[in-house]
Amino acid sequence: MKKIKKGKLFVVSGPSGVGKSSLVKDALRELKDFEKSISVTTRIKRDDEKDGEHYHFINEEEFKVLIEKGELIEWAFYCGNYYGTLKKTVVENLKKGKNIILVIEVSGAMQVKKIIKDAYLIFITTPDFFQLEKRLRGRQTENVKKIEERLKKAKEELRYEKHYDCIIVNNNYNEALKNLKYVLITKMEENFNEHTEC
Ligand code: 5GP
Questions:
Q1: pLDDT in tens, 98-116
Q2: Domains in the chain and their CATH numbers?
Q3: Which atom of ligand 1 is nearest the CA belonging to 157?
């Protein structure tokens, strides 16, 4: 039996401040068969971010050209900024057998699911809204107005939970990390076993 390597696409979503980026980053420190896709965004770069590592930071005009040319597999306008995933990078990496993780908001996740039916959708949430609010207000990456905007958005995003294949509650960070790694490995192995050739 010869195994054909075919990558699997994972989508991780969850309200702003839930810890999804940190969880994915820490999971990928150990899981070498996975790669996080780098999105394009029109958002202003934060002090601790690097262009080409956290995002490809571009302007609105450049973003609109990508939309017009059909170069984005999904995109969204989120709290005043555009965010999108480059189609070419995702498709090429999947063909190469790489497992790709998109860390994107809910409307983008729904667009991906329509195009790539076997994408596996993971939703990260908190036990209650109060904890999310506390985290978002505490991380000091946005001003008060932006935080309010993101909290409002978070309430809308929590309604999308039901469309996801798996829900991970980030109550205890290490526990959530363990669960995320378990899900990624299990689903990657299932995908690998499905793609066999005699
Ligand atoms: P942040 O500004 O905090 O980096 O991201 C704001 C939101 O946009 C987060 O929920 C993040 O996951 C999401 N996001 C990041 N990249 C993309 C993308 O390429 N597409 C979509 N739809 N959402 C994204």
A1: 999 999 999 999 999 999 9
A2: 2-197 (3.40.50.300)
A3: 10
